[in-house]
Amino acid sequence: ALFVDMVRFTSLRDHDIQVTQREQKDRELADGLKQLVQSADRQKTGRVSRDAVMRVLSKKENNKILKELGLELDMVKSLFALLDIEERNRVGIDELCYGMMNMSADSHFARNSMLMFQSKRTLDKLDFIARIVGNKFHKLEKLIIASSSCRDASHMDC
Length: 158
Fold this sequence. Notes:
mainly alpha, two-stranded antiparallel ribbon, elongated
């Protein structure tokens, strides 16, 4: 029993060391990715265009990060399109890096990330539509009130 406990303890410790090393590698990879994408942000706004990101990531010396993440440029283009909710061809650097890191974890997590980003995009568009419809109803309400006020005033004159 003592031997089994020692083996179990050693195994857990080795696992913890491996997890810690993997987390450290992931942090370093995330920092490298963020610095790489920030280099495309020439105006230092915290946002980058699709073309700037593709230009930086397609450089031969930067392929290493994409390979370590298990991503291809087409995947990054798709992610960019999902994140570009306002369709202004610009996304936040942190959001893009977070999305790329999440897509790289495994295919199941990548699908969930894609669904999450698509849901966010859909909800933002629905919110935009709701605001437009709300404004139109408000204007319609004002017109109805003004119209009924004019009608009431014209009946009193009679």
